[in-house]
Design brief:
Blueprint (H helix, E strand, L loop, with lengths): L1 E6 L12 H17 L4 E4 L1 H6 L1 H9 L3 E4 L12 H15 L7 E2 L11 H6 L4 E2 L14 E3 L2 E3 L13 H8 L8 E4 L15 H4 L4 H16 L10 H4 L2
Parallel strand pairs: 1-2, 1-8, 2-3, 4-5, 5-7
Antiparallel strand pairs: 6-7
The structure holds zinc ion.
Amino acid sequence: MFLTFDVEPDAPPYQSDSYRGVKEGIPWILDFLDSVGVKATFFITGVIAKRYPELVKEIVGRGHEVGSHGLDHSRLDKLPREEAVRNIRESLKILWRFCNVRSFRAPNLQLPSYLIPSLRGLGIIVDSSVAVYKKGHMKAPGWVEGILRIPATVTSSTIRLPGVLARRLTLPHSRQFHVLFYHPWEFVRVRRKPLYRPDIWMRTGDYARRMLEAIIQEALERGFKFEKLGDAPSLCG
Ligand SMILES: [Zn+2]
């Protein structure tokens, strides 16, 4: 089982000038994960890593994995191909100052397949830019041109549903390649205005924190083991 966080401005593109998730959400997440002994994968944009280098050092220092979430959260499918490759490469150049990078997740889970060989050429071995709940995406992990693609299994806002439902939808069964997917900004109270989708602001902050605690606790009690996504290829045997 894998716990992943996409580290980006708050609720992009709605609050792209706000970084409360990074400044307040991540310290809480790191302390919580330490308290339960769980390691996670943090997909960080290059811009955030450049802006908050101490936080990236903290994430690495506490034993978590750092993956790339692109340079500036631009949608890679909207950029010309060469521009998209440059965007990924620039994000990696920044992250390589802190650690080796093996895993990638594209902003908005949009990774055109023609970018996969470029990712491989840059040392990426795991991609999680796919989701089982997205139309046309792969439903199970699989190797594509030297990269293990592992779909997210639970969409992030699930954690903010009413308790019983959140737990049931988040931990439905015991398969190994179960990828939980959240954003640090979900663990701070996101502003409701300017008006945008309730699935973004609803029950952010304390509610999401209590629910993450409950879900991870239950997962551990049920015997799930948490791994870092970059280690997934060795788990495949
Ligand atoms: Zn994102």
